Amino acid sequence: MGLSADLSGKRALITGASSAGFGRYFATSLADAGAHVLATARRKGPLNELKQQIESSGGSCSTAVLDVTDIQNVRDVIGSQGPFDIVVNNAGVSVPKPILDQTDEDYEFVLKTNLKGVWNVGKECARVLKDARKSGSIINIASITGIRQVMHISPYAASKAAVIHLTKQMALEFARYDIRVNAIAPGWFESDLTRDFFDTDEGKALVKRVPMRRLGDYESFGGSLMLLASDASSFMTGSVIAVDGGHLLGSL
């Protein structure tokens, strides 16, 4: 897991927790560190499976159906179950197409989930923390595509660039309430969704452009996640941590 942390007594909210990739990893990692995890997503079935997985390992988990684009749903869940010491804004979508093939519906779908979702959840979690006079850590999951360009995912890249700037805006405004807001920008990671692509010639060529010459794995996230979730980062806010094998350092 990288950096170890004791999160006993902490309560963590994870959005997009039903995904087999980052969301599930974030939830299980925080639960393994002792936090009680509220795992949320739009699909109930996978959340139940995640809850069973965490509890079978001795962790503590509850679930809630949450659509991050629905502000009333967000307020209901956070208002009834918050405040949360740790918030991981992980929910995200992408529609891979060239710009000229992207429809208005594609654009709205991606921006509404990836950007407005972070706005909705971050704002409401901060409001509840402020009212309770509690400190907290909000961790927004961005992407290196929000910093450098890549073909055929322009709405996604634009949304992640906006998430990075929103992270800094939230950090500035929430600092007076001792609420920290930071972001993690992952590079290319192997997952069930990407494994076939990285077996192709195009995928192998992309991996060669990563200075470390390999893809990330979820354990590579442990250090950055636990750093930002724990008091070890108590004087960090507005930071963006790239976890990308040096990909952003690659020459043009």
Helix content: 40-55%
Strand order of the largest sheet: 3-2-1-4-5-6-7
Poorly predicted regions: none
- Content-based structural category: alpha/beta
Strand content: 15-25%
Instruction: Tell me the distance between the termini.
Output: 32 Å
Question: Overview of this structure, please?
Answer:
- The mean pLDDT is 94.
- Helix 5 links the parallel strand 5 (136-141) and strand 6 (179-186).
- With 252 residues, the chain is an alpha/beta fold.
- The chain starts with 10 loop residues before the first strand and ends in a 9-residue tail after the last strand.
- Strands 3-2-1-4-5-6-7 form a seven-stranded parallel β-sheet, sandwiched between helices.
- The protein has eight helices and seven strands.
- The longest helix has 29 residues, at 104-132.
- Helix 3 (71-81) runs parallel beside helix 4 (104-132) and helix 4 (104-132) runs parallel beside helix 5 (154-174).
Please render the helix and strand layout as text.
Blueprint (H helix, E strand, L loop, with lengths): L10 E4 L7 H11 L3 E6 L2 H13 L3 E6 L5 H11 L4 E4 L14 H29 L3 E6 L12 H21 L4 E8 L8 H4 L2 H8 L13 H8 L10 E4 L9
Parallel strand pairs: 1-2, 1-4, 2-3, 4-5, 5-6, 6-7
Helix pairs in contact: 3-4, 4-5
